[in-house]
């Protein structure tokens, strides 16, 4: 199954309600022709006046070059939504797939 924007948006809304309590704001979703990743949640970081850091400008990208089953595509969307959830809450993890990420996966 090739990813489409409507499918990703529909599943994003469904999983946001079911798994994240509707806490995730909508974000730009883009399809990619990359063969180096299936999904990617990206954001920028900026330093605040008080010295802290802030995550902003979130984007979700899903590759159309990798043929996945519907279940695999849904798992990819959930995986990227966990990255998004951690980023939106400004939490720091030990690594990209660190302790916090793995706890949320389970």
UniProtKB/TrEMBL annotation:
Domain of life: Bacteria
One BP annotation, GO: response to stress
Annotated InterPro entries: SprT-like_domain (IPR006640)
Residues in SprT-like domain copies: 9-106
Record-linked Pfam families: SprT-like (PF10263)
UniProt-recorded name of the protein: SprT-like domain-containing protein
């Amino acid at each position: 199954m090739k990813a489409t924007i409507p499918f990703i948006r529909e599943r994003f809304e469904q999983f946001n309600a079911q798994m994240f309590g509707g806490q995730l704001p909508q974000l730009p979703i883009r399809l990619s022709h990359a063969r180096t990743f299936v999904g990617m949640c990206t954001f920028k970081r900026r330093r605040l006046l008080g010295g802290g850091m802030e995550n902003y400008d979130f984007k979700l990208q899903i590759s159309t070059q990798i043929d996945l089953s519907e279940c695999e595509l849904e798992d990819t969307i959930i995986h990227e939504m966990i990255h998004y959830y951690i980023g939106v809450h400004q939490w720091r993890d030990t690594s990209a797939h660190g302790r916090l990420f793995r706890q949320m996966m389970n």
